[in-house]
Design a protein that fits this description.
alpha+beta; 4-stranded antiparallel beta sheet; single chain; 4 strands; 7 helices
Length: 161
Amino acid sequence: MADNHYKIGEETKRINTNNKGEWPKGPKILLKAHNVKEPQKVLDKAKEVMLAVSQYAYTNQWPSDEEWKTILPEWFVKSMTEKSLEQIMKTSGQWHYESWVDNIRQRSWVWWSSKIEKDTITIVLDVLDMPYLHDSLKYVFFAQGIPMSNITDEDDIYDKS
């Protein structure tokens, strides 16, 4: 899944320190949340989720779905578990809890950096492999009330320069 340039613990360090939109050397994804009220608060909550995930990412110690309920922030878990299957199916962007946990495990990207410019949050992801499943990260913003229409992404996976 992850190639050999990814070292355990590096993602956690970058989540905490890369706050100027730094770019990795290889292919990347730019995920942007636009028109965000309180962008620092939203970014901090996104980091809270990803710091929990990064402890176990690309290791052989992936917790069970039940264990994740105590590892992930309660607000985030409730954003999925308090919805009925009907609500999940009717709401574009809404995730089913177990599906989200499985998707974030299979993601093939790591958080490289973040940046806030006015009311826009940019997250730079380092692409490790294909497919790079990043809708699970979009959900971290959606769960905080950011409409999916305000979340955009672009990649340069085919740009080999």
